[in-house]
Amino acid sequence: NAKHSGRGRFALFDASLDEEARASAVLEQELRDAASRGNFELYYQPLYDLRTRSFDMAEALIRWPHPSRGLLLPRHFMHLADRTGMVPTIGEWVIGEAVMRIAEFERSGQPLQVSINISPTHLERIDFISTVKSALTRWSVPPHLLQIEVTEEVALRDPELAADRLRRLSDLGVTIAIDDFGTGYSNLALLTALPISRLKIDKALLKDLTVKPEARVLVQTIISMANSLGLHTVAEGVETEAQIDLLSAMGCDLVQGFLTARPMKLKHLREMIGDSTRRRPRVNLTSAA
Ligand code: C2E
Ligand code: MG
Ligand code: MG
Ligand code: MG
Prior knowledge:
Protein name: Bifunctional diguanylate cyclase/phosphodiesterase
Domain EAL: 24-277
Number of helices: 13
Largest sheet: 8 strands, mixed, barrel
Organism: Novosphingobium cyanobacteriorum
Helix content: 40-55%
Keywords: Membrane, Transmembrane, Transmembrane helix
Shape: globular
Number of strands: 9
Bound molecules: ligand C2E, magnesium ion
């Protein structure tokens, strides 16, 4: 019958499929172990404020120090986490870790706002707000030192639920940013409906900024619109001084990219933030003044 002939046809590939399935089952188990122990690391990428000309905040970016594969980036394991329901567990670790570090910075007399990425499935959880609240309480952290980044996807899934969660976060005093703006639906109505403080312009738009006139118009339009709505803008993936000059002239507030600072270990962030002379970038940004 069809079932049998189907089996026969795939028999040739059974060995390699088996191996692939086994490898992915192993990775899933390893991720489960890491998630239950919080065996991750947060890297921090400082954001450069074009007005104050200093680094006043940083985005926390998750890394997984894998026992044999080295340091894994989110694109190597977050999709697996999503498929297997581990996103909220990992997200809870991220919240706890980031808030603890915010408290450390504050206590050392160098307050730093830290921004964390939250997946839609975690934001939608019934206990999401209480997780954030108890982390802030546990470490006595002023809520404004925490920022939560979500993509527009949250509003496409369940607009009412997303609006409720974000409103409650905002009521706590936590800042909210829309991540990767300009690539998805970029629904303008969304921006007025949600309690957002910052708009992060996706790095895909930045890539073309200095070469394609259309990209320039698009970025300028986003920045002007954000400004009129009272939102701050962050340009992601800034890699050249020419981009900084242009963004500065366009009224962009913050830049985040390899040019000004790469994602770094906590230890290096501490050195950079602790040393006020290093709080300014090493590259020559005088023209951005
Ligand atoms: P994202 O939130 O848009 O983060 C910015 C990404 O751009 C980071 O990649 C960062 O390393 C990279 N980047 C920064 N500056 C530059 C630049 O100048 N050029 C280029 N080409 N890239 C730059 P990363 O760390 O690999 O993270 C990728 C994505 O994974 C993040 O994008 C975010 O969506 C997700 N992610 C990271 N950490 C977490 C987390 O803790 N939880 C969740 N749910 N997602 C996370
Ligand atoms: Mg982000
Ligand atoms: Mg982004
Ligand atoms: Mg992204």
